[in-house]
Amino acid sequence: MENKSGAQEYRGKPIICKAAICRKAGEPLVIEEIQVDPPKAWEVRIKIICTSLCHSDVTFWKMDRLPFPRILGHEAVGVVESVGEHVEQVKEGDLVVPVFLANCGECRDCKSTRSNTCSMGGNQLSKSMPRDGSSRFRDMKGEVLHHSFRVSSFSEYTVVDVIHVVKITRDIPFDKACLLSCGVSTGVGAAWKVADVDQGSTVAIFGLGAVGLAVAVGAKQRGASKIIGVDLNPEKFKIGKKFGVTDFVNPDTCKEKPASEVIKEMTNGGADYCFECIGLASSMAEAFNSSREGWGKTVILGIEMHGSSVTLNPYHLMRGRTIMGSLFGGIKPKSDIPFLVNKYLDKEICLDDFVSRELGFKDINKAFDHLLAGNGLRCIIWMDK
User: Which domain of life is it from (predicted)?
Assistant: First the structure.
């Protein structure tokens, strides 16, 4: 018997499937058969249709202080295979996007418009399920496999808490839906919800990866007059034009001037909005210094993983500049991701150019090679190819 997800009926029973396991930091993932337990109360088991490789996956793939073995991956789309007790938001056969950021919709934080945090969310980097602290994965020897990002999408099936699941319409292509589970939503959301870019404003984006280019998409849709991309790779300007980047600054070719001075000259005093999408303390400070005195706003999207501190001149803060961090671009997953899906379907935002290549699941390590070499933006990894 088959259910709406197209898989055999395993409701309430373990499923044997394949997963790409990270057994040691920085080493190629190993595709093995694993056992995925049925969902417990408040949990959803998802058959992954496709997943993609985000730079955060690469960062944590290299990180040897996290527990092994573990299953990475957090940008994905899939179909609900089964649900546990008390799950009412989704049902078997629904198309869903799993997300690393919790959104219960009931806590004080979720009900507030001030942020997109969730009191029930806890640590997104936890190695286990959020409610009972256990894993739903085991290899065929019985060894526990740890979760990552509350999603672990590098598996044909995964189990996710319902607060990390967003139901979406089937009208959107699977590969485009996949993009909205992290990187693109982060960038567009930062431009729309965090910075609230306005018509005719100037924008500077430090780092033209998928997130930075998504910021450009959001800023262009909001009517920004000048969108400056800052990157060391000159090829990124050719790519950036497709997403709305109007000007380009390469810090290596600015002669003796810092990028911030060049941007001030280009914008007659500094950009109205600056976005740091790299994750380096030095570029965070440079982004802040590129903003306009009086009202310039700097939004930090990159994650600083080197333990460095950002040094700012307090006088510049007193003169009206602001700097703020942003997790997932201020996106509240349950309401904002369906909104972005509709924006795509209405052709108000374009997602197609973010997909650089497609691979089958067995070639997942090639996706790592391409990202490490800087070849393209997002690689879609199809589980059934």
Answer: Eukaryota
- pLDDT, one tens digit per residue, over 150-200 is 999 999 999 999 999 999 999 999 999 999 999 999 999 999 999 999 999
Of 54, 67, 37, nearest to 328 by C-alpha is 54
- Phi and psi at residue 356, in whole multiples of 5°? -90, -35
Residue type at position 23? R
d(CA 348, CA 381): 26
* The two three-digit tokens of residue 198, written as one number: 């306005």
Helix ranges (DSSP H) in 180-313: 183-189, 210-221, 235-240, 259-266, 281-289
First CA to last CA across the chain, in angstroms? 23
Phi, psi of 345 (to 5 degrees): -65, -30
Cα–Cα distance between 75 and 154 in angstroms, integer?
9
Tokens 């919800």 locate to 193
**Amino acid identity of 270?**
G
The C-alpha torsion from 168 through 173 and 178 to 179, rounded to 10°, is -110
**Beta strands, E only, the chain:** 15-21, 30-36, 43-52, 75-83, 95-98, 137-139, 144-145, 157-161, 165-167, 202-206, 226-230, 247-249, 273-276, 297-300, 322-325, 355-360, 378-382
List Cβ neighbours of 229 (8 Å cut-off, separation of 6 or more): 205, 208, 212, 216, 236, 237, 240, 245, 247, 248, 249
Residues of the chain with pLDDT under 70: 1-8, 124-125
